[in-house]
User: Fold this.
Amino acid sequence: MSGLVTGAGGMLGRHLVRHCGNAHVVALDRRDLDIRDADAVDGAIAHHRPRVVINCAAWTATDAAEEDPGPAWRVNATGTRNLARACRRNGAILLHLSSDYVFSGLSRTPYPEDAPTDPINTYGRTKAAAERAVLDTLPDTGYVVRSAWLYGVGGRNFVDTMIGLERTRESVRVVNDQTGQPTWADDLAGLLTRLAGAAEAGTAPPGVYHGTSGGEVSWHGLAQEVFRLLGADPSRVLPVTSGEFGLPAARPGYSALGHGRWDQAGIAPLRHWRSALHAAFPLLQEAHAQKGRTRESIRN
Assistant:
């Protein structure tokens, strides 16, 4: 694959670059390329001439976006539009990462790929606008991959937070009225490389795909599973409602995604969330321990 990855310094971006291995891939983090700058985006795509661009760059601070929408709109919507236009001008395929937050969460069954978007917070609206920019600008070469509840090595994520809290808190309060699909970033990275290859080969139809793990669970249930893997008592994880936290941004109550479209691309969807978490856990524990050792070294 001849590719270019934006947001390569983020958690998913780092997993993705490792998955690309010996492929000819240009990895650009936000210091290398500010996707809000249309001229810079045009220049980067024209200079590197990638066959496939994978956009992992995003503003993901959901509550901050509710209080100050501007940065999220500029990165998620305007930045993605800049990439889509540059890809169109340079004949590149674009794979864009989106989110389950483009949905309201009023469904009680997994959302299919063609379900109408109906976001309930600013972050979700910026991601829905980004999807439209990709699909409208690149009807034949634009791919939107929605994911959710990502965790991995590096970066802030729920699983890493729970590993830390288990060691420092007698009990932890976690919401039990939001259901979704925890997704290991390394699994998603592998899926993206397979989709990029299929897109380049012309065997994957353009449009929307769902890159989440199988099954579904609440944040409370996920936290309990993390405690079990740590050998801790899962009853220390106490269920609470979203309303009790009073966060600025509303969250979808149910945002599980269906995976029916992967058959059209000849690609298997991701494994069950529990299987992925169990496989990833030794790496996640070691990464968390390494962060602790690094902080201790700095203090000393």
The chain has eleven helices and twelve strands. Residues 2-151+183-214+252-271 form a domain with the Rossmann fold fold (CATH 3.40.50.720). The mean pLDDT is 96. The first strand starts at residue 2 and ends at 6.
